[in-house]
Amino acid sequence: ERPEEDNEGREVIYLDQERPSPWRDFMQGPYTKWIFVGVSLFGGFILSSVAGDYWIVIQQYLNRVAVGTVDPIFAKDLGFYFFNLNFYQFIYSTLMTGLILVTITVGIIYALNASSDLLFGNWRQFTVAKSHIAILIAFIFALKAWGYVLDSYGVLFSPEGIVFGATYTDIYARLIAYKVLMVISIIITLVIIINIFVKKFNLVLISIGVWILVAIFLGGLYPTLIQNFVVQPNEFNKERPYIESAIKFTRAAYGLDNAKNQQFDVDNLLDIYDPDHKITVDNIRLWDWQPLMTTYKNLQQLRPYYVFDDVDVDRYIIDGNYRQVMLSAREIDQAELPEEAKTWINQKLMYTHGYGLVVSPVTEVAEEGFPEFFVKDIPPRFSTDLKIERPEIYFGEVTNNYVIVNTLQKEFDYPMGEQNVYTTYEGDNGIKVNSIFRKLIFSWVLKDYKMMLSSQVTNDSQILMNRNIVNRVKMITPYLSYDSDPYIVINDDGKLYWMMDAYTFTNKYPYSEPFDSNRNNYLRNSVKVTVDAYTGDMNFYIADEDDPIIKTYAAIFPDIYQPISEMPEGLRAHVRYPVDMFKIQANTYKTFHMTDPYVFYNKEDPWLIPTEVVDDKSQTMEPYYIIMKLPGEEEAEYILMLPFTPKSRPNMVGWMCARMDGDNYGKLLVYNFPKQETIYGPEQIESRINQNTVIAQQLSLWDQRGSRVYRGNLLVIPMGNSILYVEPLYLQADSSKLPELKRVIAGFGNKTVMEPTLADALTSLFGRPGEEPVGGETSPPDDSEVSSPGSQSLAELAQQAKQYYDQAQESLSAGDWAGYGNNLNKLKDILDQLQASVIED
């Protein structure tokens, strides 16, 4: 029967003490306490494991710094969103999860305790149980009220409006909803606590029902009504202040607020032979990394276990001249060893490192259409004053396994004819295996029992681990994001170093447009990393001392970071503005160059990054490095640049560049073309090349002869008050894996030419030194205005053909099949030129 209340209003509990209660017996058992201790410890372990994943969030909060800029809605310093908000959200989610789990667990325990009596027909009311659970639920709603406060800050990162961030509907609907729901949550908390004493459970149900209804109305229906009936009829006036905030904060988040805009007046009166332009002409990049990589592999790989994984671009002072060069490290890939050579000795003790690199000027081409080399071969041979004193590469981009050095087995250093040269590692940065215990531990960790058994491993031996440079630096700084293109550098002391760009980022920059799927909307290239290719030693240099995030990391890890002024001068001269960063800035700028809110709202002037034809495929143009003298500057400098076109037309409207020499590092410049001028964009130049009958005829002829034509990157090169266009063209015979640079296409004004060399192309465009420069008012070309495929006479071509034929016969007699095939390919190219000349005549 149901319990009744006595005259004093007390609860009467009917218990049959004679009947057994299994659950009560269990709860009163001797081991119950330890079971609950174990469950509590397990729950604590789970929560602490989750907290461990947020260690950097906790550390950022403890070492937070102010940014110095406040948001336009809550007037809080941006440091609150960078550091505090993530920490508060972590605390909130952890507490809420813990409270819900505890409430459910307590409810289950009380329910099981009651069920033991209900099985025997007894009713039991637990005043303590109701109070306990009520208090827990009250805590949940109190915490939920704080959650609404945190959610209100989230409107600054709302993707729902006309711009990213809080818009009119967010401020006057969603923000109001959060405030109302916060108040209701506090009221529910108070009602639940009061109900413990007055026992008016209906009030609890009513307040929770009101909370649910208000959440549905204010959270969904009300914002829709505001948007449709208040905002849309007068959208620009309602949204204008938020558009202005989005423009301001997005430009600041990507460093575009400091970009300097200048007018670039075009007159097309270029004197290509002006001494001011010589350094630019001498450094026009003709070699694209894809065909150059293939050429390096065929000419300089030398052994199957050597690989060229990437081709980098950099600048050096070479023989007193500022030169742009292409470089590629010759690394070792043990996977390319012959199967019979993949022994434990070879893979762990002998073939431990790569050797040297190749360096080529970006403009120079050898007679055969191959690159010239400033550095080549093994051991390195130099044609300039570049020197390499420590060519061994133990740490690189493809060194993915560990090796053991200083063993009784000499390491393979490099091949010398039919003999090999051996060496011993001279560094001391590895992990010593100088005891049986260490051998045992590393044999277990590396799953390599042969290390334990090998007599070649001595107490002087060292293990070199984590040799992949990308993985290596990420182990030290996993909270940074890294650029996709590490590059090799020759220091002044002749040692090789890898340089890497690291980024700080956050998705908590108010009003800033995100650049990726994680909604990250703030980016700084705040860290430059160097890795010694021989020792693996890493150094992390702060490149942006104004970045608040790197300030926080430097406070957390003071022993890791050092100012960039501490970087050796020989390395600092090769610091580059990273392409990945520049691409994100350019993609953002193409929309956010519109600083007038009305123009932005109507999308009156959106820009695009143009497309180009590479290897007969259309692709978005990539930023490119170039040495040039900027307008108004006295000295040529190394820059990274990219042109822009309007969204609705293919002509150019401007170009952006990032400077990187000396104190100008990191400065962004944007040059705008006059709106009344029509400047050919890359797509228009590509179209003019395709429509050129002489060029098209030559390309078709090569294709018919079985040669694959590879069109390289189109370069848009500002010079003086003019624009020069250059595109290299490579040929690769079906019987050969070697692409050869055979033609250079150049354009200026309305004229397009194709010649064997850049010098010939410039001569066809501008005449010889001393002649009048080409004017800008040039009529569209007919076929006679376009140069022929080559400037050589038929007699010269015939003489070259005879020379290559004789060389081929000599190679055949000597049994040199590679030389024989190479000379036949050259002979075929000369014959193609002869045929083209005859057809033209």
Explain what you see.
This protein is α+β, with helices and mostly antiparallel strands and 841 residues long. The protein folds into six domains: 21-124; 126-253, no CATH class; 254-278 and 577-786, no CATH class; 284-393 and 400-467, no CATH class; 468-574, no CATH class; 795-840. 41% of the residues lie in helices and 20% in strands. It is built from 23 helices and 32 strands. The strands form nine sheets. Strands 1, 21, 24, 25, 26 and 27 form a six-stranded mixed β-sheet that branches. Strand 25 (637-646) and strand 26 (654-659) form a beta hairpin. The longest helix has 41 residues, at 78-118. 38% of the residues are buried. Residues 1-7, 11-17 and 773-791 have low confidence and may be disordered.
Descriptive labels:
841 residues, alpha+beta, 6 domains, 6-stranded mixed beta sheet, 23 helices, globular
Task: Give the topology, please.
Elements: H1 22-27, H2 32-52, H3 55-62, H4 78-118, H5 127-153, H6 168-198, H7 201-231, H8 235-253, E1 260-263, H9 275-281, H10 289-300, E2 306-308, E3 312-318, E4 321-332, H11 344-350, E5 354-355, E6 357-361, E7 375-376, E8 381-382, E9 392-393, E10 403-405, E11 411-416, E12 419-423, E13 431-432, H12 436-445, H13 449-453, E14 462-464, H14 469-476, E15 481-482, E16 487-490, E17 496-506, E18 522-532, E19 538-542, H15 548-556, E20 561-563, H16 569-572, H17 579-592, H18 597-602, E21 607-608, E22 611-614, E23 617-620, E24 624-628, E25 637-646, E26 654-659, E27 668-672, H19 682-691, H20 693-704, E28 707-711, E29 715-719, E30 722-733, E31 740-748, E32 751-755, H21 758-766, H22 794-813, H23 817-840
Parallel strand pairs: 1-27, 19-20
Antiparallel strand pairs: 2-4, 3-4, 4-6, 5-9, 7-8, 10-14, 11-12, 13-14, 15-17, 16-17, 17-18, 18-19, 21-25, 22-23, 24-25, 25-26, 26-27, 28-30, 29-30, 30-31, 31-32
Helix pairs in contact: 3-4, 4-5, 5-6, 6-7, 22-23
